[in-house]
Design brief:
about 50% strand; globular; mainly beta
Length: about 120
């Protein structure tokens, strides 16, 4: 599976960004998907996940209520809508494909990773 993330950029605190991840190479609709992020000097952490059909999502408590994950299986894309952004949300955001249809908050469950897209939130 090849994953290409896009949509990052510079935004002021309180603003919004929508990240998108395009997948190719395998049947996208069979794969759980996730978003993770890595802030400068920190470990990569879970942000959101969605199962293969899009019927179930899970969001990290740190962004719950502000971030949502969605997918469009005919278009082979998974999106992360980020609202009310804060400076502490500054990070490189990665999309990843799970080896199962379920999605997961655990990095070890993901076999395929995109290249990351940088989100910078200014105060």
């Amino acid at each position: 599976v090849q994953l290409q993330a896009s949509g990052g950029g510079l935004v002021q605190a309180g603003g919004s960004l929508r990240l998108s991840c395009a997948a190719s190479g395998r049947t996208f609709s069979n794969l759980g998907m996730g978003w993770f992020r890595q802030a400068p000097g920190k470990d990569r952490e879970f942000v959101a996940t969605i199962n293969s059909s899009g019927s179930r999502t899970s969001i990290s408590d740190s962004v719950k209520g502000r971030f949502t994950i969605s997918r469009d299986n005919p278009k082979n894309t998974v999106d992360l809508q980020m609202n009310t952004l804060k400076p502490e949300n500054t990070a490189v955001y990665y999309c990843a494909a799970d080896r199962t249809p379920w999605g997961s908050s655990k990095e070890s469950e993901y076999d395929y990773w995109g290249q990351g897209t940088l989100v910078t939130v200014s105060s």
